[in-house]
């Protein structure tokens, strides 16, 4: 610029708004194929009984592929009365790390059979739960899985009765209510059998203080395993503590007065506290005390030192089995009937147990 004057700054350009793709309509397909929109609709909805020449049907299908036409799912839902969605309403599963596998299992199984999962996590909020179920009913879901983050008896929400439903990780005593739950009794047997299999005969069980199906079932499994092995049940070897790390830690001193060589804990958190308590008493695992937990919480069990032998809660399989039961697939648990299906709890052996030296 002459005389040292600065050149004016270029005018700012208005940001460009990306052009939206125009959704392909039935009319677009009809024009491309040279047919009526009614003919396209018959082809899209696979009305095989419709009198459409094969060459015409092929032209419509070619136009659909070329243009990338997608049918209106909601319109099809209104016609058929159902959709390709399955609902899942949970009270806290999505925010609970190990129980979140219920969603994973349900999602994988639903997708395998051509369904997508609609998920609502209510955190126990009754009003939110009602709204979630109502929304799913409006979307005409194929059915609803109703899940709780821990195994318990539940009341069936009134709105849930308007849909086909399956209870997951919970149950109702109401006749005909279908449910999938963990087999707590089998899990208790498996936990005890880990210790019996390593030669232990004086096995303590630290149970929970909180009433729950797991408390009763895991104790029953413990007793059944002892009876099968010919080991007399000793009520003095059954303790109770709050089912968390502090509960297990606090039970240590009492446990050590019972003369046990091995202990099965109600859950992994309790076992984690027991690890701390045993070490404070100068005892090592498994040399001085073999320990087995329950739940197989990976953030705990696999990372304790030594890694904890435990029994896995089958959350993934609970979700998957719930979908199979809902869809009444061949071989699904409870197919064709009501009632509660119990899912196996697999044993996971690690190094917190070793063979008991024999006299």
TrEMBL record:
Organism's domain of life? Bacteria
Q: Does the keyword Membrane apply?
A: no
| Gene3D superfamilies xrefs | 3.40.50.2300, lambda repressor-like DNA-binding domains
- Region span, Disordered: 1-21
Query: Taking every annotated instance into account, which residue ranges of this chain make up the domain HTH lacI-type?
Result: 24-80
Task: Keyword check for DNA-binding, yes or no.
Answer: yes
Q: Which UniProt keywords apply?
A: DNA-binding, Repressor, Transcription, Transcription regulation
| Biased composition, class Low complexity, residue ranges | 1-18
The protein depicted here goes by the name Alanine racemase
The record lists the organism as Pseudarthrobacter scleromae
